[in-house]
Write a structure and sequence with these properties.
mainly beta; Jelly Rolls; 6-stranded antiparallel beta sheet; 5-stranded antiparallel beta sheet; 1 helix; globular
């Protein structure tokens, strides 16, 4: 089968466009630093806790009331018959900290382009086993210029932490945007997982409706 020069040029152009798109998406995925909380590395099968104000969790600052903390947890950690597996990589973040269970969390500031549409996705971890880990996990999310919202994973999972993904879009209103994730569980709940947080730049929001989409 013979291919004309015009068709060959168009074919090469389509491949190049596809490669550019893939490169663009890959680059956009790097907007957030340490979205799976892989650093600092915690002891295998255990966890480490970092207090409010700490920036020891690479890319993130711990926020919340004084005296509270959050805990990066090893994906091989287990307690009360529950396996606390990671959704991505080897670690995840427990927003309830170590016996804290308040409104603590983490925040990260990223450079954004005014008028561009961004897609934020993340996983919320929950278990219904163990007796001290509650029945649902709620993460409160705040995006600069956008009213706060909450996402809840209430999947029944008695022997292992399960993960549910949530996705939202927003239009940037400034050259930097603050993303904040805080614990929304009651004081009796000792587990609230956050994992694999990704922020993508989808380009100019021409005609886009910036409403949350899960």
């Amino acid at each position: 089968m013979k291919i004309s020069a015009a068709h060959l040029t168009k074919f090469i152009a389509s491949i190049f466009a596809g490669l550019c798109l893939a490169t663009s998406v890959a680059h956009a995925a790097t907007l957030l630093t340490n979205g799976s909380f892989e650093t600092p590395v915690v002891p295998v099968g255990s966890f480490s806790s970092f207090a409010v104000g700490s920036s020891a969790i690479t890319g993130w600052t711990v926020v919340g009331p004084a005296g509270t903390s959050v805990s990066p947890v090893s994906g091989t950690f287990a307690q009360n018959g529950v396996a606390f597996v990671a959704q991505d990589g080897a670690q995840w973040l427990d927003l309830t900290g170590f016996n804290v269970n308040s409104t603590e969390g983490v925040a990260q500031t990223v450079a954004t382009t005014v008028g561009n549409l961004y897609q934020l996705s993340f996983f919320v971890g929950n278990t219904t086993g163990g007796g001290i880990f509650g029945t649902a996990s709620t993460v409160n999310v705040s995006i600069t210029g956008v009213a706060p919202f909450s996402d809840t994973n209430s999947t029944v999972s008695p022997t292992a932490q399960n993960w549910q993904q949530f996705t939202h879009t927003f239009v940037a209103t400034g050259t930097s945007t603050v993303l904040q994730f805080t614990n929304g569980d009651p004081g009796t709940d000792n587990n609230n997982g956050l994992e694999n947080v990704v922020l993508l730049d989808l380009g100019p929001a021409v005609g886009a409706v910036p409403e949350p989409d899960t």
